[in-house]
Amino acid sequence: MSAPSPEPPAPEPPAPEPPAGEPPAAEAAVRAVDLHKTYTGPRGDVPAVRGVDLAVAPGEFFGLLGPNGAGKSTTIGMLTTLVVPTSGQARVCGLDVTRDAVAVKRRIGMVSQNNTLDNELTAVENLEFRGRYFGLGAKDARRRADELLEMFNLTDRRTGTPFELSGGQAKRLMICRALVHRPEVLFLDEPTAGLDPQTRVNLWEVLRELQAGGQTTLLTTHYMEEAEALCDRVAVVDHGRVLASGTVPELKSSAGADTVITVTYDGDVPEGVRKLSEREGIGKVEVTGAQVRVFARSPDGLLAELVAAGAAAGVGVTDASQLRPSLETVFLTLTGRDYRE
C-alpha cells in the first residue's frame, strides 16, 4: 500500500489593493495591511497598533507622524522584523516580514532613537564591521566606509570613538552604518529627537540628499516642520490607528477651511460664537477655555464679528490671529490637545 502523497502548501492570500493615491501592492516598497500588535502583561492585553494600513512607493520619503505613544515605533518595529505582529500582513521589498525575516533584514537599514554604535570601535571601524557583516571584503568595506564618512562630513572624526562624537555626529554615523550595505529601504525612528535646532536642520540636508538619490525612506517623527521639510507623503497615527494620510497639501486641505481664525477672550467665550458652526461656509468651531478657533471657507468679516460678539457679551479680546491651516492644525484636530507622557 503506497503512502499518501503530502498535501501541497496553502497558497498565500493576495494582498488587498491599496486606497486611491497609494502605489499598487505589487509595486510598494513597504506594504502593511490591517497590521495589529497587542502586548500582554500583568494588567492584561495592551493594544499598541490596531489595524494599520500603509503603502510606500520605491524612492518615496514617507512619514509616520504622531504624538508619543501613538504606535509609530511599534509599527516600524514590525516592519523591520524586530517586533512580531499579532495579526495582519506586512511586506518590505515584496517579502513577508515574518516568514522572510532574514531576507528582509538584508534589504533594509534601520536607525533607532537610541545610540546603538559600538563604543569600543572607532567611527570607521563601526562602518567596516557592518560592511563585513553584510558580506563585503575587507578592501570593499574600507572603501565604502570612507565613502560614507566623506558623504556625511565625518572624515575628520574617522578615528574617534562614539564617546568623542557630538549628538549630531553620532546620529550621522548611525545613518552611515545603516547605509553601508546599500539598503533598498531606510527606516528612521525619531532621528532628530533630542538634537538642537541647528543640528536638526543640518541632518535634514543630509536626508534630502539621500532622497534626491532615490533612497526609499520611512521616517517616524512628531515634529511638524520635519514632516513638511522632508516627506513626500505623511500618515497621521494615534492610538495605534492611521487617522489620515496623503501629501502635506492634501492633509492641510482636509481641515475643511481656507482660514483658521483664533480669538482669545478675557472671559467666557460668548454663547453666540459657539453657534457659528451652523452657518454656511464655516467648517467647525472649537472652544477651549477662553479661546475659540473657527475653521472658515469664507472668512471675510468674521474676525471683526468675533470681536464684536465679545464686546456685546462684556468680554474683551486678548489675542487674535487669522491664518491658513498648517500641518500642526491638522495634527491637533486629529489627535487632540491633551498632554501626552
TrEMBL record:
<dbReference type="GO" id="GO:0046677">
    <property type="term" value="P:response to antibiotic"/>
</dbReference>
<feature type="compositionally biased region" description="Pro residues">
    <location>
        <begin position="1"/>
        <end position="22"/>
    </location>
</feature>
<keyword id="KW-0472">Membrane</keyword>
<keyword id="KW-1003">Cell membrane</keyword>
<keyword id="KW-0378">Hydrolase</keyword>
<dbReference type="InterPro" id="IPR050763">
    <property type="entry name" value="ABC_transporter_ATP-binding"/>
</dbReference>
<dbReference type="GO" id="GO:0005886">
    <property type="term" value="C:plasma membrane"/>
</dbReference>
<keyword id="KW-0547">Nucleotide-binding</keyword>
<dbReference type="Pfam" id="PF00005">
    <property type="entry name" value="ABC_tran"/>
</dbReference>
<comment type="similarity">
    <text>Belongs to the ABC transporter superfamily. Drug exporter-1 (DrugE1) (TC 3.A.1.105) family.</text>
</comment>
<dbReference type="GO" id="GO:0005524">
    <property type="term" value="F:ATP binding"/>
</dbReference>
<protein>
    <submittedName>
        <fullName>Daunorubicin/doxorubicin resistance ATP-binding protein DrrA</fullName>
        <ecNumber>3.6.3.-</ecNumber>
    </submittedName>
</protein>
<feature type="region of interest" description="Disordered">
    <location>
        <begin position="1"/>
        <end position="26"/>
    </location>
</feature>
<dbReference type="InterPro" id="IPR027417">
    <property type="entry name" value="P-loop_NTPase"/>
</dbReference>
<dbReference type="GO" id="GO:0043215">
    <property type="term" value="P:daunorubicin transport"/>
</dbReference>
<keyword id="KW-0067">ATP-binding</keyword>
<dbReference type="InterPro" id="IPR003593">
    <property type="entry name" value="AAA+_ATPase"/>
</dbReference>
<keyword id="KW-0046">Antibiotic resistance</keyword>
<dbReference type="GO" id="GO:1900753">
    <property type="term" value="P:doxorubicin transport"/>
</dbReference>
<feature type="domain" description="ABC transporter">
    <location>
        <begin position="30"/>
        <end position="264"/>
    </location>
</feature>
<dbReference type="GO" id="GO:0016887">
    <property type="term" value="F:ATP hydrolysis activity"/>
</dbReference>
<dbReference type="InterPro" id="IPR005894">
    <property type="entry name" value="DrrA"/>
</dbReference>
<keyword id="KW-1278">Translocase</keyword>
<keyword id="KW-0813">Transport</keyword>
<dbReference type="InterPro" id="IPR003439">
    <property type="entry name" value="ABC_transporter-like_ATP-bd"/>
</dbReference>
<dbReference type="InterPro" id="IPR017871">
    <property type="entry name" value="ABC_transporter-like_CS"/>
</dbReference>
